[in-house]
């Protein structure tokens, strides 16, 4: 598997010969309003895409599918709705299917529980986009587990804090790789709505052999945890050897864990 962070939570996974775009947000820097009622009121995204227009066109033409965890504008924006091919296979949570069909996408698959696509099993898992009153007000969110023979099992946690749903997913799926939306995003009231460094530490303790990938930082005004802060935390906690905190545009290849390769 090859994982490439584009920006924020937008990643490209090359998985079992399929190129899957996750949570596409393709607007240029400053094209969108700040997340309301949140700190640091600046227009979003805070940073530019790490590619030229020509490179973006080539990427979109090379895609085999799109996976969307939920439709908050920092996970699927108007630019993505405009630029993505209308006939591309698009996978989403059931609550969002009609919205994508209204955008004109013709190959929408709502994942209630699990689907198999080109030999890849995609399993939807729950999460909590905050706690208490804030969580109740936020739209439903999903995480997804990707599994396939010959590839590491990957858990895309989506916008969630550490919660029972995440713990249950780790226990049931035993993923080799966890992609966590960090940033410790929050509003002016209430607690965090995405993972903090301490939440990611809980994942690490639950899965001592898993590789951790932390994204969802430094691109939206409501995300307060920086890459530098998370990297420093990982150093202090002895996680640096298994936590990758990519910069925008960076990519890395991941193979099967040795213990699985020998089975």
Give an overview in words:
There is one protein chain. It is built from eight helices and 14 strands. It is of the alpha/beta class. It has one domain (2-261): Ribonuclease Z/Hydroxyacylglutathione hydrolase-like (Metallo-beta-lactamase, Chain A, 4-Layer Sandwich). The strands form two sheets. Strands 6-5-4-3-2-1-14 form a seven-stranded mixed sheet, with helices on one face. The chain is globular. The mean pLDDT is 95.
What topology does this entry show?
Elements: E1 2-7, E2 10-15, E3 18-22, H1 53-62, E4 65-67, H2 78-83, E5 90-92, H3 97-103, E6 108-110, E7 114-117, E8 120-125, H4 132-137, E9 143-147, E10 154-156, H5 164-173, E11 177-181, H6 197-206, E12 211-215, H7 227-236, E13 243-244, E14 251-253, H8 258-261
Parallel strand pairs: 3-4, 4-5, 5-6, 10-11, 11-12, 12-13
Antiparallel strand pairs: 1-2, 1-14, 2-3, 7-8, 8-9, 9-10
Describe, in short, the structure shown.
The protein is of the alpha/beta class and about 260 residues long. It has 8 helices and 14 strands. It is about 25% helix and about 20% strand.
What keywords describe this structure?
8 helices; 263 residues; alpha/beta; 24% helix; seven-stranded mixed β-sheet
